[in-house]
Amino acid sequence: MASSLVLCLVSLLMVTISTTTCTPQELNRDANSDPTDRPSGSPGRPETAEMSGGPWRSIQAELVHKDHPLRAAPGSLSFKERAERDFQSSRRRSEVLRSRHERWLAGGGGGLPTYVSNLSTNVNEAEYVMTISLGTPAQNFVAIADTGSDLTWLQCQPCAHCFPQADPLYDPSRSSSHANLTCADSACQRFTSQYPADWHSNCPVQSSSNASCNFFYAYGDGSNTTGDIAVDTIHLTSTDGAVADVPNFAFGCSQSTFSDSGLLSGNVDGLVGLGQGDISFPSQLGASFGNIFSYCLVPAKGVATQTSPLLFGSAALSNATGIQYTPILYNTSLYFVGLQAISVAGQPLGIPSSVFANNGTDGGTIFDSGTTYTQLQPQALDALGTALGGKMPFTQIPSTINGFDYCWDASGLTDADIAKHVPTVSFNFTGANYDLSFDNTFLTGGDALFRTICLAISRGVLVSESIIGNYQQRNVYVVYDRANSQIGFVPRNCGEAVSVSPSTTTGTSSASSSASAGTRFRAGLESVMTRVLLLQVLSVLYLYPL
Asked: Rounded distance, CA 183 to CA 189, Å?
């Protein structure tokens, strides 16, 4: 039996390798580099990262969902299994966000959060990943794209306790542009002034010490990663397909990870922080590309075949016709927005405003790309479910999917027929109405004879926060206009190519550049996934020798 299993895995590996379009240079990214070929001395470190090599005003990347074939085995989960998996990961994500927010509020005073998650999670549950390229010569990695985190970090050599990853660890000795920061460096000072003291115990605020700037980044389930804050050149793709180099990008060079739960393990190499903190990816590069980014998440039915565009700079506004904006309310790591009410068929529900209010430490609504399903407080969810049930000609039935409280029998109807009979749900934000489509509102399961629809919004497990998850953001063009402290949204067909305004590019057409960038991305990620599969084959061979 073990022999058959190994032969199956080897066969699958051969198929994967045969369909991978990587060049030899992509499969061995630094094949021609000499790790000893680097100048002596440390590179200079200006106050902020600035782009070099051209007037780059917009950059692009692609987000790959966890159900994309590049990350998951096709057909490995049933509809019910996938929905329950996403519900559980959403619960765990909400607890991580809660703990992270409390740590932020603790500030530089060293206070610890009163709330600590007791649920485990796994980095394989990360909703979206992207590739990043760092160092001179470049070293490429696959990392989680996270709007709920600030610090970008990678596992680095030498590493005392690192989780297994498909790519080689980032090697500082192979990059001529790498340098560790000291406590006196401005980037370290920004980090120490904004985060709790237990995250940077060796560097007091306003320190002039030449000691290395260490970090200790903790997660809600008790997992953590620790190492040095360093700088290196990050290589980005501009919207015309050219490479834009950004020197002195600050990131965490992790040399130790700890996780009883499995959070820090899996098929990625680190994390890209897209939050509001001073050390986040968009914060560091804001001066260069205008402090604005956007994404357009393909719908659930498209994640298996398509990736989602992530744009930084003026190109982020290329698809924003008709967009509505709501203010970002607080200067924290997370993106809080003001949810005023929820409406069904244009009628606000009788939910007290206090349900959505933030008192400075608790409550409020977080806009988050890393949570799958929107989570509402019980009072709000029950009001929404009751209102929907009263306006649909379907019989409410007990849910057969764990985590979803409101389901109805729609047997004999197609999704198109069902959509004609359901009212529109709207989130009424400060200054903007966010109308959900049928696909953003419901999960549909079963067949034409026995059809079930369930409200794709779950009961929040936190004390008071609500979270707008990515299931409700799909086929919506979302703009994080950080320069003006606002988030915008407008319905779009994200499965179609997202256009890039010619005025935001220099050189070749946006269509060809997007295609070339996408090809490079997919080739790089496919090579990573090939190595993941190889590791799995080797693990089976080790456990079940032939």
From this structure: 7
Rounded distance, CA 492 to CA 353, Å? 30
Full-model pTM: 0.78
Cis-peptide into 158, omega within 30 deg: yes
Cβ neighbours of 135 (radius 10 Å): 24
DSSP string, 430-481: TTEEEEPPHHHHEEEEE-SSSEEEEESEEE--SSS-EEE-GGGGTTEEEEEE
Task: Give dist(CA 258, CA 217) in Å, integer.
Answer: 11
Contact status, residue 241 vs residue 274, Cβ threshold 8 Å: no
Q: Which residue matches tokens 């966890």? A: 66
Cβ atoms of 213 and 200 within 8 Å: the answer is yes
Contacts of 283 (CB under 8 A, 6+ apart): 150, 276, 277, 291, 482
Q: What is the largest CA-CA distance in the chain?
A: 74
* Confidence at residue 400, expressed as pLDDT on a 0 to 100 scale: 75
3-class DSSP assignment, residue 429: strand
Q: Identify residue 254 by its one-letter amino acid code.
A: S
> Could you report the per-residue pLDDT of 176-234, keeping only the tens digit for each?
999 999 988 988 888 777 766 556 556 877 677 888 898 887 765 567 788 999 999 99
Alpha helices (runs of H) in 315-463, residue ranges in sequence order: 378-391, 415-419, 438-441
Q: Residue 405 half-sphere exposure, CB side, CA atoms within 13 Å?
A: 18
DSSP H stretches of helix in 156-294: 186-194, 281-289
What's the pLDDT tens digit per position in 151-161? 899 999 998 88
Instruction: For the chain, give the mean pLDDT.
Output: 74
Catalytic residue list: 146, 368
Q: Report residues of the chain scoring pLDDT below 70.
A: 1-56, 69-79, 81-85, 87-126, 195-202, 206, 219-222, 258-267, 300, 303, 359-362, 447-449, 461-464, 497-546
Measured distance CA(151)–CA(145) in Å, rounded? 11
Percentage above 70 pLDDT, the chain:
62
CB 90 within 8 A of CB 24: no
Contacts of 15 (CB under 8 A, 6+ apart): none
Straight-line distance from the first to the last Cα atom of the chain, in angstroms, rounded to the nearest whole number: 10
Give residue 177's pLDDT: 97
The DSSP element (H or E) to which 12 belongs, if any, is helix 2-19
* Predicted local confidence at residue 6, as pLDDT: 42
Amino acid in position 22: C
pLDDT of 187: 84
Per-residue burial over 161-180, b = 16 or more CB atoms within 10 Å of its CB, e = otherwise: ebbebbbbbbebebbbbbbb
Distance between CA atoms of residues 423 and 433, nearest Å: 15
Q: Domains for the chain: give ranges and CATH numbers.
A: 57-73+124-319 (2.40.70.10), 320-496 (2.40.70.10)
Tokens of 240: 């015309």
- Residue 45 is encoded by which pair of tokens? 């470190």
User: What is the structure's pLDDT at 497?
Assistant: 58
Residues 58 and 93: their CA atoms lie apart, in Å, by: 30
